[in-house]
Specification:
By secondary structure, the protein is α/β, with parallel strands linked by helices. It contains 29 helices and 24 strands. It is globular.
């Protein structure tokens, strides 16, 4: 018989491959493997049982992942007639629904879908049941090294599909009890400044939080307080436990037992999870609380690590694809860090005054969590907050012990109809939050972006604690120094890099190219812009910082937003950057035909537009050739056929290049036969967005490139595209297929569904 902690280790080890598999095994292989593993679990001797159990749970994880991607093969053919329940909505054009019926057949489990850009027949609210005709698409996200992985996030949230509404009729217009409750509380909070923060803390409704608040929370390392996390659900459960213990004071001794408070804890935690919208992180926390309760009821004395193993394994057994969730990794890592901290660095000071002891214990906790969470913070967020220790020393006790209890009290009073008492609670909470956020604004801006070289160095606090407690610093100081130096090796070791590289970033519909050499970077265009954000802020700046690249300049092809959208954000961070363009704008150096310059040993030549010509729009694009003496790249912006012919008139031989950046995203108005013939390249790179409204790239254009012998690569299919140039030659790698192939990064759906 295998022990429970060992079985939990088998669950975790069996599920971990979902993070790294490039493709999922076939369903038949997984079922056959599971059957064979079951036989092995029963009959194999000794340690071979562990292998059988790991194989069994691996097959279980694969089947769960295949169930998650099942809609990609079953719900994408034409319009789908479904019945669905509204889960969340912004009240306008964005709705999350769960499909329960397809063509009058029940689906279990229900399929989650995000519907964007579509209005419902009337004001929508969570809980409404509707009959819909939907045009569904598999989830697809922009994919760049070190960037936010939207595709993985969507699958971790069990939202594999996106789509738009063709038609919708309401079957049941009743809002859910939770939606009506939130509306009631929200109406009571209308006049308060911190209404959105109160709703976020009470119900997990963070959609209405403004960008200023989100940036402040990130910079101070307090964003975790706005999520309905284990801390909040645990607090709600503790209040239920405390209420049960108070009730037991009035009972005779023989009626008092430990099970009733535990039951009340579970009920309170369950109710609060429901109020929080039963989102996946909250449900996982509730599962962990139930597992902890069952371990308590077992009568055995489980240590902290065994409880941690059982909780993580229980979550992964119920939902194996949760292994993709960054929130699960962050929560599990945080709990492991706390266990490690209190076992290896316990609080031993015993001051006389209790209030001083409380403050010192709180500081001890925050120091530990700040130091030990650095590795996971760097991996997930690519930076750390230097003010998080001071911010959390104040914010954690204020939010946890004052604000959240006040909010829960106000939510309870809302049910009674005592408006005078409810308004008093909300006024007090609003004043408290105003003081807290005033303090957070007073702190210096503490967010520090860190590049990938520091990932291993972030483990230093863990290593130092182990070395200190095991007294390695005393018995073998050289070993301690060597271990820390090894973690810092990426900072001082000079890694052999290719001669130079070109990176076409995946910015959706737009263009952003980074030329990299000797740790420096030159940009060609800066992607798109939209209300409230741009590609520079969201993609280019984080990418450059994560790869430790210092930009020296920007070449701007033309003035259209999808090519210059991120320019202002980039210039805010690096205001002294040289900018070249043919626009004649202030501080812009010219990019006209005949202009040449050198950068890091590479030769740049501008071939269009003509000097002094004021030509706006696509045909005014600055066309630049980059040459290292052996290999060359031609960057073309959005140039169209008339300008292509004019450019080629006197510059036929000068434009020959191995790599051609496809003009105008593969539009049929560009990429003439004459251009492709004169460039005589081997590879074509196109920056396009999947599901774009213009159906780019054009089928005729891709066939034209194939006819001229070009290998076609585009960001919709490959994500970020990297071309590596070296003395031995050059090669092209796509992030989705070669650099980071993962089953959850695949191109799901029909190969030509964008046309």
């Amino acid at each position: 018989m295998i022990a429970l902690p060992a079985l939990c280790v088998c669950v975790i080890l069996g599920t971990l491959p979902l993070l790294f598999l490039p493709a999922l095994p076939a369903e038949g292989i997984a079922i056959t493997g599971a059957l064979l593993a079951c036989i092995g679990c029963r009959w194999l001797p000794g340690r071979m049982k562990f292998t059988a159990f790991i194989t069994l749970f691996f097959c279980w994880a694969v089947l769960s992942a295949r169930e998650l991607v099942w809609p990609f093969s079953s719900l994408l053919a034409g319009n789908q007639r479904v019945e669905a329940v509204v889960i969340r909505t912004d009240g306008a054009t964005e709705h999350q629904v769960a499909i329960n019926k397809l063509n009058n057949r029940w689906i279990f489990p229900s399929v989650g879908v995000m519907l964007r850009g579509s209005y419902l027949p009337e004001q929508a609210c969570a809980g409404q049941r509707m009959r819909m005709t939907l045009r569904l698409r598999p989830v697809h996200g922009q994919l760049n090294e070190g960037g936010f992985d939207n595709q993985r996030y969507a699958l971790a949230q069990r939202l594999p599909l996106t789509g738009r509404i063709i038609d919708a009729q309401i079957i049941s217009g009743d809002c859910s009890l939770r939606a009506r409750y939130i509306a009631s509380v929200s109406a009571s909070l209308t006049s308060y400044v911190w209404r959105d923060v109160i709703l976020a803390l009470g119900f997990g409704e963070r959609l209405t939080l403004g960008p200023e608040v989100k940036i402040l929370l990130r910079n101070t390392g307090t964003a975790h307080l706005m999520a309905i996390s284990g801390l909040h659900i645990g607090l709600a459960g503790s209040l239920g436990w405390l209420l049960a213990r108070l009730l037991q004071l009035f009972l005779p001794a023989h009626r008092i037992g430990y099970r009733f408070p535990l039951l009340m804890l579970l009920v309170s935690a369950s109710v609060y999870t429901w109020l929080a919208g039963s989102n996946p992180p909250a449900v996982r926390t509730l599962v962990a609380i139930f597992i902890w309760s069952l371990l308590r009821l077992s009568g055995r004395n489980w240590n902290a690590w065994q409880v941690w193993l059982c909780c993580v394994a229980g979550i992964l057994f119920i939902e194996p694809t949760a292994i993709l969730s960054e929130s699960l990794w962050l929560s599990a890592f945080a709990v492991a860090a706390l266990i490690f901290w209190y076992q290896w660095m316990p609080f031993t000071l015993k001051p006389v005054r209790s209030w001083l002891r409380f403050l010192l214990e709180l500081a001890h906790l925050q120091v530990g969590i700040t130091l030990l969470l650095m590795p996971i913070q760097l991996v997930l967020f690519h930076g750390i907050s230097l003010t998080s220790l001071a911010a959390n020393l104040v914010a954690v006790p204020v939010i946890t012990f004052i604000a959240v209890p006040l909010i829960l009290t106000g939510m309870a009073i809302n049910l009674t109809g005592w408006q005078w008492a409810e308004q008093g609670i909300w006024r007090l909470t609003d004043t408290l939050l105003q003081a807290l956020f005033k303090f957070l604004r007073w702190l210096p801006e503490g967010w520090l972006d860190v590049d990938e070289r520091y990932r291993w160095l972030a483990l230093t606090p863990w290593l130092c604690i182990v070395l200190w407690r095991l007294r390695f610093h005393f018995f073998s100081p050289l070993l301690a120094v060597a271990a820390i130096a090894l973690l810092a090796a990426p900072l001082w070791c000079v890694q052999k890099k290719p001669d130079w590289s070109l990176h076409m970033l995946d910015v959706g519909h737009g263009l952003a190219v980074v030329i990299e050499r000797n740790g420096r970077a030159m940009l060609y265009d800066t992607g798109n812009g939209w209300p409230g954000g741009d590609s520079g802020q969201q993609i280019i700046i984080p990418w450059l910082r994560w790869h430790n690249l210092q930009p020296d300049g920007v070449i701007l092809s033309h003035e259209h937003l999808d090519h210059r959208g991120g320019l202002e954000s980039v210039l805010r961070v690096w205001p002294k950057l040289m900018v070249r363009s043919a626009l004649g704008w202030a501080r812009h150096q010219p990019c006209w035909r005949g202009e040449t310059w050198r950068w890091e040993g590479l030769h740049f030549t501008a071939h269009w537009p003509q000097a002094g010509a004021v030509q706006a729009g696509n045909n005014g694009s600055c066309v630049v050739k980059i040459d290292d003496g052996r290999n060359s790249v031609l960057l073309t912006g959005d140039i169209e056929a008339p300008a292509e012919w004019a450019m080629l008139k006197n510059y036929r031989q000068a434009l020959r290049s191995e790599v051609l950046v496809v003009p105008h995203h593969g539009s049929r108005t560009s990429s003439s036969d004459t251009l492709l013939s004169m460039v005589d390249g081997k590879a074509a790179l196109a920056s396009v967005s999947r599901y774009n409204a213009w159906r780019l790239p054009s089928v005729k254009v891709t066939r034209r490139y194939a006819r001229h012998g070009y290998r076609w690569h585009d960001t919709a299919q490959s994500g970020q595209i990297t071309v590596i140039f070296s003395p031995e030659g050059w090669q092209i790698k796509g992030l989705r297929e070669q650099i980071l192939p993962r089953w959850y990064h695949q191109w799901f759906g029909a190969p030509a569904d964008n046309r």
